[in-house]
Records
---
Amino acid sequence: MTTFPSSLSAPAQRLLASIQSNDARVGVVGLGYVGLPLAHALHRGGLRVLGFDVDNGKIQALARGENYLKHLGTELTTDLQASPRFEATSNFDRLGEADVLIVCVPTPIGIHQEPDISYILRTATAIGKTLRSGQLIILESTTYPGTTREDMMPAVMHAASDRAHTLASGRDVFFAFSPEREDPGRKSHTTSSIPKLVGGLDEASTKLATAVYEKGITTVVPVASAEIAESAKLLENIFRAVNIAMVNEMKVVLHAMGIDIWEVVRAASTKPFGFMPFYPGPGLGGHCIPIDPFYLTWKAKETGHSTRFIELAGEINTAMPAYVIDRVAEALNEQSKSVKGSRVLVLGLAYKADIDDVRESPSFELIELLQHRGAHVEYHDPHCPATWAGRRHDLQMTSVALDASSLANFDCVLIATAHSAVDYALLAKHAALVIDTRDAMRKYEATMGARLVRA
Ligand SMILES: NC(=O)c1ccc[n+]([C@@H]2O[C@H](COP(=O)([O-])OP(=O)(O)OC[C@H]3O[C@@H](n4cnc5c(N)ncnc54)[C@H](O)[C@@H]3O)[C@@H](O)[C@H]2O)c1
């Protein structure tokens, strides 16, 4: 537990005491993949939690105890619904009721891969309108280094400028950054068990934010500044993007040599040090890895530097869907069929196994590339019954059934996501051709012969 440093201002000391005694009320702004489990973890730690979201559908679902994020299970929302210490609202005039505000809003990129921090700035302005002494504001949304100090804090203070003479950052109001490291669907970790980095704009802010997270998270790691915490998150995601690109590149090269990348990764993984496995795939998906690295690329230009690793990884990873479709074309060709006119079933719409998150999923790109080449495309995903309009795609499709008779209608099944609920034995038995980008069919290799192609 955080000690009580005497150097803290009176408002900071009061806030720290109220956090430690569970009197403080925490507002979580943005109740999505990041905000909802965080709200639950802090609530379970004993704090009073007030959730905010612009999406009134989510507020109403929470009031009914329904979970709109299926991978989190229903217990989470029934816990919150039953508690007098939790409430959710879309009334942003109530932001002033919270002693601590944790901002978990989206940070997408624009069509020219420029950061879009407009959600953060809108939230900052709303917070500023009701800002009062003794409030701590923590940003969790992934962003470029400097956002908390150079963008968010000034936006909050600007909106509170009529009270500027009474509110000084670091004395009366406090700001910190704490990156979210959520990995939806991962069973080995929960929000509470993933160590939490915390970096404030000043020492008092770091101490206060650390005290908040210590309520619901087992390991909290204070770092020297908000910029270090912001950059650490980007390093984690860039590390993944670059390594995935490397293994994707190696997949293409090894395929040309007739060598199986999956067996190579498994073989290299036997080394007990100095190696970490990354797996190839049909392209990058999810809200983080395809997007966040480009926040640094944009910011780096300010210093006259380029981010060559990020650009190269982006180039290789975004070329993967087209590579996979070339492999589909080759495999159909082997069966004397063309892509044009073929019926292709894309298996898996979500960007990774066993979740329903389709954000930035390469499956959309695969479907469009196939359609562009004249294929008739359907999809099956047990977690995603229908598509809806996204940032870049609006396919207006619904998931088709997966059974022996439906499989008989397709010339080819393209496995884009290896959901564990799918019956792969059924595919092995009834599919005319399977293109496997996830190594989901290995145990049927012998029985399928030329009907199974890895891509
Ligand atoms: N999903 C992940 O696995 C993950 C992991 C690490 C970091 N992040 C980062 O966390 C942030 C949030 O991501 P997410 O996955 O939770 O997104 P999400 O889309 O699931 O949730 C964001 C929520 O914010 C709400 N919202 C939008 N504008 C708002 C506003 N002005 N005020 C209040 N609420 C608003 C949306 O309705 C939505 O419920 C992003 O910066 C993301 O990069 C996400």
---
Amino acid sequence: MFVISHVVALSNNNVIGVDNDLPWSLKTDLSHFKKYTTNKIIIMGRKTYESIGKPLPNRVNYVVSQTINEIEGAIVCNSTENAIESAKELCSKENLNEIVIIGGGYLFRDTLPITNKLIITRVDCNIDGDVFYPDIDLGNWKKLESIKFLKDADNDYDFEVITYEKIK
Ligand SMILES: NC(=O)c1ccc[n+]([C@@H]2O[C@H](COP(=O)([O-])OP(=O)(O)OC[C@H]3O[C@@H](n4cnc5c(N)ncnc54)[C@H](OP(=O)(O)O)[C@@H]3O)[C@@H](O)[C@H]2O)c1
């Protein structure tokens, strides 16, 4: 079975983005993101791709868009379903077993029903934003691990990285 995961950082009030950017600077969380996604297949929405500005190195980058046809260094698909199907085929071919959805709001909402692993960075703040992570019923999820980090010169807020797997 394939693992389809979300890697997401969200505030206490579920904000994930503002003005097509992240609402915080959390250097340690970015390192965690890089470490978790490296050598994996990642899928993102067009706006997230534009906010990052380039394909992320050492990962297979899928971008979902109906307005962009081609990106050098990324595979562009015109629907989330096509991206997932293509990523699954690639997984089988390359002997990989995880597809990581990295955002943003559209992509997380589209794929939550087929997601079986969540790697959530819970950022300890209530903050204004314009993109939100969907409400999830954590009763359907089992916590596997959680690691706490404290606010410091590199990180705007305290945060906790929590890994959940879907209860079958
Ligand atoms: N905190 C986090 O962990 C995190 C992670 C990622 C992103 N973000 C933030 O989230 C924000 C961006 O998220 P967003 O929700 O605005 O946009 P998004 O999901 O990144 O991208 C939306 C775009 O993706 C394409 N798309 C999405 N679903 C589609 C579908 N089913 N079929 C075809 N195309 C589809 C469309 O592109 P076209 O218009 O080109 O057709 C759509 O406009 C930014 O603020 C970013 O910084 C936060």
---
Amino acid sequence: MTTRAVTPSGAEVLAERIFSSILGTMDVWSIYLGDRLGLYEVLAEGGQTEDELLERCPIQPRYLREWLEQQVTTGIVHVDDPAFDAIDRTYWLPDGHAEVLTDRNSLNYLAPFVQLVTASGIQLPRLLNAYTNGGGVGWADFGDDMRRGQANMNRPWFLSELGSTWFPSVPDLHARLTAGARVADIGCGEGWSSIGLALAYPNVAVEGYDIDEPSVEAARRHAVGHGVADRVTFHEADVGAVEMASFDVVAAFECLHDMPHPVDVLTSMKRMVKPDGHVVIMDERVADQFGALGDDVERVMYGFSLFICLPDGLNHAHSAGTGTVMRKPTLERYARQAGFETVEVLPIENDLWRFYRLR
Ligand SMILES: C[S@@+](CC[C@H](N)C(=O)[O-])C[C@H]1O[C@@H](n2cnc3c(N)ncnc32)[C@H](O)[C@@H]1O
């Protein structure tokens, strides 16, 4: 008997890939529901029956049963014995799943990423309109799911890494912060980078700036909650309009590429920093050039760009239209136009972000 290897056609390979992406999308949306309805929070406490979940979560019984069975089928939730009558089954989260779905302090916490991606999906009709007719969809239009998703996605990194591993790997910056410094945090969102810096460096005072009022209000609450409101204050302001100031460090964390007028923002940052101070930009760790087949970082950044950052930037008149994939040569061009002479890549290890210092 002879056998013949059958190579799947290009169409079959792509069809399989898209099918598996559709399964992934369904996982994402089901996780969004489980997160927003508080189901994972209760499941993280230990095994739960339907009745126990119904007592504590705002969900209708028929939807709960379907959601639980879908979660078991897709492998996120486990069940003691699927053959039991539904009402008698006990559901729980297997090892590690509660961390990813509910542990706000873990670097593996991905529920906010799901929330942010879903927030952009909710806006697809507006995105389609912008793609067709121009304009964009602004940060505020994406709403609370977007601002909370963004804030909680970066929160564990800012609270645990910023002052303990990232900035300590830049000795002169670390020394300046340790000695005591005035820091400005540009586009601070809900303020976790400002709070992370204040917690790590007891002698710094941080001023956060953001144009989005609900983000600034949330940032003020978080600073009080973390006991640093005496050293961390927030301004609702367009950073492009900030006048002279005298900061030792002016930083922008994952936001320069969102700004419609990045050169104005960098010019402001230059005005705000002391002559011997540090201007630090944390942005996406993308390659220096566009390449045909990107790695996962390039893929996720183009995804962010299509659905969030580019339409956010293009929502303003005369926007630079940067998008999430702000490559190093693009930043160098903006920096030169703003009057900086050099852009240095800082020796901070991270898979997603790159840190630049502008002089
Ligand atoms: C992607 S979020 C990043 C927030 C935060 N830095 C973080 O890492 O989670 C971008 C932020 O930039 C803010 N922003 C955009 N344009 C701004 C401007 N001209 N002045 C101040 N903030 C601005 C938005 O309101 C939003 O909170």
---
Amino acid sequence: MESIANKLNVFLADLNVFFRKLQNYHWYIEGEDFFVIHEKLEEYYEEVYKQIDEVAEHLLMMNYEPLATMKSYLQNATLVETENKKIKKEEVFSVLVNDFTHLMQEAKDIKKQADEKQIVETSTFIDGMISDFNKKIWMLKQTME
Ligand SMILES: [Fe+2]
């Protein structure tokens, strides 16, 4: 079984790719509702930026080494990067629902393994992120109705 440290580092790599993707969309979004979506994407990437720091510092607190280079993030990430191109809101929303769902599944896997190994610190740490992703998925789906 993959170690919990590895899973946390893959999660960290994915959050970094996701951060870059959110700012990319913040810059490249065009069309209807530009003002609202441009702002919302900034709010999202600022939150992910904080989560990146929290995950890296959690790894350190558990005596593990967080990945900290762009190269290692790209090598370990399971989320797919985006391109340098203009994008419309329908595609942004659909990618965001998929990516938040992917991140939530990774967080749930980390929690499951932490519970099996009775690592309470990691199990409780990851709870906030599961709730956060779950709420964002719901809100994005409401927007897409
Ligand atoms: Fe900006």
